[in-house]
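Suppose a colleague, Dr. K., hands you the sequence of a protein chain of 147 amino acids and asks what its three-dimensional shape might be. Before reaching for any lab equipment, you can write down a predicted structure in token form. Begin with the sequence itself:
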Amino acid sequence: MKKIAGSIILCVSCIIFSAKPMKLNMTESTIENSSFDCANLSGSDFTKSKIIKGSFTRVNCSNVNFTQTTFINTNFSGSNFMGANFTSAILGEKSLFLMANFERANFTGANLIGGIFIGANFKDAVGLTSEQIAYLSQFPVRNLPTK
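The predicted structure, expressed as tokens, is then:
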């Protein structure tokens, strides 16, 4: 795993078409005005990071640890979060998750208010509370669990 923990990353453009995961260690980092479009970040660790005003479209974020991560005004449209951990994360703050795949993702203690989830897939997602489900119900989402 590449270690970049505790970094402040500004204005990075990382448009990578890679089948091999980058597996970055971005714990406690601030990533601002950066682009990781089409990157394979599978297995990376973004614990306690802040992702601000970025572009992460069509990114493979399967099995990524986003525990206590804050997403602010970032575009994750078309990205794959299968098996990702969003425990106590903040996915709101005007971030876009259009057509994102959250299959088997963990949302225990996460705050989704303010995020936009049009067309997102929540098949077998865990940890969603009735309040989170009510919020997500305002969007045309797929496979939303019922409580």
